[in-house]
Each structure stands twice: as structure tokens, then as C-alpha cells.
Amino acid sequence: EGWLEGYLLTGRHGFFSTYEAFVHVIDSMFNQHAKWLDTSNNIKWRAPVSSLNLLITSTVWRQDHNGFTHQDPGFLDVVVNKSPEISRIYLPPDRNTLLSVADHCLNSTGYINVIVCDKQKHLQFLNMDAAIKHCAKGVGIWDWASNDSGAEPDVVMVGCGDTSTQEALAAVEILRQNFPALKVRFINVVNLFTLIPSLEHPHGLSDRDFDGLFTTDKPVIFCFHGYPWLIHRLAYRRTNHRNFHVRGYKEKGSINTPLELAIVNEVDRFSLVIDVIDRVPALMIAGAHVKEKMRDLQIECRDYAYEHGVDKPEFDQWTWSAVHGS
């Protein structure tokens, strides 16, 4: 971290890449650089300095071998504490959004850019043009995964992070197969600070735009990469915050398969489907059979993982049936 800070002061660019669980080792250095940037950016005679780019990888959701010791997405909570003029957090859901985010970060000056991205294989959801537009907005509706066009949704499903987005999309597919009349809006958040009101952060959405996306009274099932209370912290002043139901890391895990780890933390597709059934009044009774099926699948998947050490192929190799740009 110190080497990179000095390297940037020579007028060059760089990335500091580290395991998510170990980035806390440089918490204090991050804090000091953020304070220095916040002050130096207001001194007219200082030339712009390339942004400090932190690439956070080997994430909490893919600790197939290391286990519980390597599960900690809490660095994001530290970053949120810093000045909104300095701090930026990006959670690209696929490689094209990662390329777009990285291009933006490498061309920026005066920020600390935190990019959270797993190093394992993941699905590709957006073509390059769509990825660039999505990253420019920071948050948006994925029309190809939604069926509420021209109407109010019954529920809003949100993915923020690569594994979280995949599980949220898989949940939407299950819902659309079992409840064709259910209106689902799918939103992906790539720039975490869009959740903060625009008066508090330059990337924050206005209240009107936020309400337009997340509605003012519909249930919002938010599948998040990190600790769930961080989303509540960012969005607590929003109109529909009372209907935000955030699922994230709950400090539960061991040496688990990816789906098994998701299940024990309730960010898996089955838990998300159950959440929707519980939150949408029309599904309380009509969804009872599907709810039971989801619980059965959770048990089957955990038993299979315990016996074979890998996830069931139909879930491990799952793909969206109509991925745009694939």
C-alpha cells in the first residue's frame, strides 16, 4: 500500500490487489491517504494525483478451500466512513462491467476507488456497450430480467455484487416459472454510493430517481455482497426504506461450496424466493407449495455438498435462459 501511494505521487497509475479478508491490514493507511487526499485536493498549487485503486478479490462468497477465516466483506464499511468527495465503491457483476469500471478508475484523479470483484469464473450478463452505459449510471433496471414494463412491479429484486447478482437472477427465474403473473423488476447496483441521497454524495440518486427505481411502497429484496446493515445505513432516509429486506453475509460459514455458503447466510436463490413469497400478500397462500419446494431444495443442496464436496451440477452450472448480449 505504501509503495503504491509513493508510486502514484510520481505521476503514474496503479492497482493494489488483495484478498478481501486481509485488506483490513491496511485500514489505517487507507484512512490516512483518504484524509491526505481530502485536504490536498483543496490546495490549488498541488497537481492532481492519480486515484488510489484497490482491487478487492478472493471474496467472501468463494472460500471453497480457505473457509471461515477468509470470510469478511467489512472493508466496505470502513470506506463508507470517509469523505464523499474521496471515496468510491464499485461492485461489477461481470467482466465487462469490471472492464468499464477499471477504465474509469485508471483515468480518474483524486479518489480512492474500491473495486470488489471475485477471481473465480462467473457468468457474463452484459455486452460491452450495455456494460458501459450501466456503469455510467451506476444503478439501473435490467429489462431482460424484468417483466414489469409499463406497470408497477409487485416486487423489486436487487443484486449488488457478482455472486449476489447471480443468485438474485436465479431467484427471478424461479419466480417467473412458478408465478407467471407476478410483476418482477430486477435492478443491479454497481456503484454503491448511488444509494445515498444526492445531497450527501456526488454519485447519490435524487429522491425522485430513487423512488422511481425502487418504488415508494413495494417490497424490495436486496441481495448484497457484504454485511446487510450497510445497505440500511446508506438508504435509511429513503421513502421506501421500511420495505427494504437486505440479505448479505451473516458471519456464518466454514469450508463450504459456494451455494452451501449462500444457503447458510440466506442469500441463495431459494431463500430469496421464499422472501418474495413472504413479502407479497398475493403469494402468502398461493405460494405455499413453492415455498416448501424451496426448503426441500436447500436441504438437498446442502446434503449433496456435504457428500460430494461440490454443488449440484444443475445449480453450479446454472445460466440465465435469455441472457442479453451472450
Topology (elements, then pairings):
Layout: H1 2-9, E1 15-19, H2 27-40, E2 52-57, H3 75-80, E3 87-90, H4 95-106, E4 112-116, H5 128-137, E5 139-141, E6 155-160, H6 162-178, E7 184-189, H7 207-214, E8 220-224, H8 229-235, E9 244-247, H9 258-264, H10 269-279, H11 283-286, H12 288-308, H13 313-316
Parallel strand pairs: 1-2, 2-4, 3-4, 6-7, 6-8, 8-9
Antiparallel strand pairs: 5-7
Commentary on this structure:
By secondary structure, the chain is an alpha/beta fold. The chain has helices spanning 2-9, 27-40, 75-80, 95-106, 128-137, 162-178, 207-214, 229-235, 258-264, 269-279, 283-286, 288-308, 313-316; strands spanning 15-19, 52-57, 87-90, 112-116, 139-141, 155-160, 184-189, 220-224, 244-247. The strands form two sheets. Strands 5-7-6-8-9 form a five-stranded mixed β-sheet, sandwiched between helices. It has a four-stranded parallel β-sheet with strand order 1-2-4-3, sandwiched between helices. Strand 6, helix 6 (162-178) and strand 7 form a beta-alpha-beta unit. Helix 10 (269-279) packs antiparallel against helix 12 (288-308). Mean pLDDT is 96; it is low at 322-326.
Strand order of the largest sheet: 5-7-6-8-9
The CA-CA distance between the termini, in Å, is 37 Å
Inertia-based shape: globular
Number of extended strands: 9
Index terms:
4-stranded parallel sheet; alpha/beta; 9 strands
Summarize it.
The protein is of the alpha/beta class and 326 residues long. Helix 10 runs antiparallel to helix 12.
